[in-house]
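Sharing a chain and its predicted structure for anyone who wants a worked example. Both blocks are below, sequence first, tokens second.
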Amino acid sequence: MNKRIIFIVLSALILFLALITLFAQTFLFNVACGRVHFGEKHVGQTLTMEDGKKFTVYRRLKITVKANAADNGAVFIVRFKFKSLKPSTNKHLSMIPTPFLIGMKGFREKYWTFDENSGFFQGIYQWDSKISAERYPGSFIFKVMTKRSAAGSLSYLILPDTDLSEYIEKLSSN
């Protein structure tokens, strides 16, 4: 096997173990309580973003919690192009941060999407609040994402007081 691939796999394993340790309490609570779901809703569906770009959903993760009716939370959208490896490899490697997301306070849901025409990946997240969404770019996993993205390709947007389910439905109907 290629040394680079071995290095990536070993690095991923080390990162996975470190993240599990750091976020074990929330991660274990969410998993043990049956809150973690990889849903099929919208998987395979094309979403037309506000800028006209079309992204296909290839994975969805949801943490089931009792919602606070007073707060819709915030949607966080990140878009980037990986600087190395094929898209199919990156789609598989994108599972590595899942335990971290499950363990982050305030994380509720994520859609993984890909634009076949441009090669850009996009994550669309639901956070319990604008404050939680604003914290995400300072997280370790976001910094790793930044390092793996092609120079100048990463951008993100926070939509406060936005419900992800309603937002996805709107993108699906475009």
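Comments welcome. The mean pLDDT is 81.
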